[in-house]
Amino acid sequence: LPNSFLALLIIAIAYTMATATATTTTSGATQPLVTKWSSRYRGATVEDLDPPAALSLNPSDAISLALMSAFERDYTHLTIVDADTRALLGYISIPHLQSLLDSGKVKPEDQLSAAMTRFQRKGRTYQVITM
C-alpha cells in the first residue's frame, strides 16, 4: 500500500477511537467506552482523589527526617528549598539516599545538603531583549 494511504488509514482509526463514545454489547445494549486509564480513576477529579500535601525540606534537615517523611507519605522524591526564601534548590531521591546510607557515604544524622541533587543555579547571564 502507498505510504499516503497508510497515513490516512492511521488517522482515520485514531479519529474513530478518539471520538467513540459507546460500544454495543452482544445483547444490543449500549455501554460507554471506558479506557484502561479512565476506568482506574472512574472520572474522579483532583479534589476527589485528595492527594497528600506537597512536602519540601531544607538542606539543613537531617537525612533521617527525609526518610521518615517520605515513607509516611509513600514518596520517592522530595524537594529541597531554601529555609528563608523558599527558593527551589534541588531534590532528594529516596532510593539513591538509601544506597548512600547502605554504602556508608552518609549517616542518618547528616544534613540533606550532603546527599541532595542540586539544580544548576548559575548559568549564562540572561540578556533582556527589547524592541
Mean pLDDT across every amino acid position? 78
Number of helices: 5
Q: Which structural class best describes the helix and strand composition?
A: alpha+beta
The percentage helix is: 25-40%
* Topology-level CATH name of the largest domain: CBS-domain
Specify the CATH architecture of the largest domain: Roll
What's the alpha carbon Rg, rounded to whole Å?
25 Å
Query: How are the strands of the largest sheet arranged?
Result: 3-4-5-6
From the N-terminal CA to the C-terminal CA, the straight-line distance is 52 Å
Q: Tell me the overall shape.
A: extended
Instruction: Give the full name of the CATH homologous superfamily of the largest domain.
Output: CBS-domain
The CATH class name of the largest domain reads: Alpha Beta
Q: Strand portion, in percent?
A: 15-25%
User: Helix-strand pattern, N to C?
Assistant: HEEHHEHEEHE
- Detail the poorly predicted runs: none
Number of domains: 2
Largest sheet: 4 strands, mixed
Number of strands: 6
Q: What does this protein look like?
A:
The protein has 131 residues and is of the alpha+beta class. The chain folds into two domains: 3-47, no CATH class; 52-118, Roll (CBS-domain). 37% of the residues lie in helices and 16% in strands. It contains five helices and six strands. The strands form two sheets. It has a four-stranded mixed beta sheet with strand order 3-4-5-6. A two-stranded antiparallel sheet has the order 1-2. α4 links the parallel β3 and β4. The longest helix has 17 residues, at 3-19. The relative contact order is 0.11. The model has no long low-confidence stretch (mean pLDDT 78).
